[in-house]
Fold this sequence. Notes:
It contains 24 helices and 16 strands. It is of the alpha/beta class. The strands form two sheets. Strands 1-8-7-3-4-5-6-2 form an eight-stranded mixed sheet. It has an eight-stranded parallel sheet with strand order 15-14-13-12-11-10-9-16. The two termini are 39 Å apart.
Amino acid sequence: MSFTLHGLPVSGGIAIGHAHLVSHTSLEVAHYVLPKHLVDEEVARLDAALEATRTELTDLRSYRPQQAAAEFDAFLDIHLMILGDEHISQAARQMVLREHCNAEWALKMQMDELVTQFEAFEDTYLRERKTDVVQVVERVLKALNGESGHVPPTTKHDVEMILVAHDVSPADLIQLKPHQFFGILTDLGGATSHTSIVARSLNTPCVVGLHHARELIKDHDMLIVDGEQGVVIVDPDKHLLADYRLRKSQWELERQKLKRLKTAHADTLDGTHIELHANIEMPNDLMEVKENGATGIGLFRSEFLFLNRDNLPDEEEQFNAYREVVEGMEGLPVTIRTFDLGADKQIKGAVRVASNPALGLRAIRLCLAEPQLFRAQLRALLRASAYGNLKILVPMLSGVSEINQTLQFIEGAKQSLANEGVAYDPKVQIGGMIEIPAAALALNIFIKKLDFLSIGTNDLIQYTLAIDRTDDEVAHLYDPLHPAVLQLLAHVIGSANKAGVPISVCGEMAGELAYTRLLLGLGLRQFSMHPAQLLGTKQRVLTTSLPEMAPLVQKIMRADDPMKIRDLLDRLNSA
């Protein structure tokens, strides 16, 4: 019987093939008390499982597909870091010794405690790292049971295979291509989960957040995976199968055509030039940036240098990372955001606890509260500015006081470098993120004090609508097309353009094709997005005439009915 499942589309394309179900270790473990004379033996069993898991993760580096993005190594580092974290390994060990419980139960208890901490994180990326904790513990549990943590090998088939799992770790995905998987389906996961990021880097159609796919789909079921719409069709009839095979061919043809646009200038039909920049997390993302023809780095999320470890990067390590990116872009602009960590992120020397981290000490607030950390980063950024076109971007500014304090810190860092005779660009540009409604409404202050602005639509929408987009109960209310959001965007872009201050959008809206023409119509001329989205966005720009779409954009801005706004947007994109 044919049926359809709906999930979150995270990597476009169409895959057609047979389901291959991957089992996962149940975290419903038993709890029992050991006799005193067996406790040391249980600790040794736990230590052996931890070491076996560490060896397995280390060995997986040699399985890294050549075509895979460099993020794979970072993902493995994160899992190795979690494995070595004292809250997992040492705490579980101490629990076995203290309570004489079995190793499985101790691991489960420590995992639950860490997951609770991660669930409190406001930042979407950090919040979804709870999945990495669970995946690492699952792998250790498999080692305790004498099982391999690898994706089981598959036999050769005449049709493509679709991976179906409750969840799948990046370490397992390293073996994706060798085992002929052409689509990925998971019950868990979000847009910024590692599964999603890896799938996009491999250009593999992927739908996550399906909830019950692992239960409803049987091994070898024929599947259609629509990674663009988030639709999974199980046992389709021959007519639907033929239709999707045609769509798949057309999709692949279009993707090949997009590669031809790599060196083309992003100009609209009426001759308006648009800058298309890339968002990156680490220096090793540069290859993908260049392969997709980005004309700059619009957002380097520097906090990723702080996340994959349990110790802080010093000034020298940060400087080397920033310089590598700046030199790698060969004179093109590189915008590096100062670390955007939250009140809930536990790093050595900066531990904070907040009842509501979304409104707590995060981003620039944390930077100003931790002057030693902030000065080290600013010195590293300024030193790297001597090697190319570097700009500094400050997140979550809300008013003139924070701007003034930030500029004073930067001047202090400049003076300290000058006193030491260290080179830096004295004219390095300083910009601010517009992601709090107060910043959008008090924009004149930002325009007067800063050299450029960048709109973080993810947080701007979230704070404007008072909606946690990671909360399943209210995520459906997260709406980029809400009239209030559109009015704020129009105000910020229009005011910046009028004042002659460069303005960009670096949030998720920038890479969504549905919003490209709307943002162009609002006056946006610089976009920054995931590198994989660049060529598709460039194609949309090349087929857009700003004068022709202006009337439709004006109608959208006058509309207040959500259905009417979406109908008008559909007309705008079909023109």
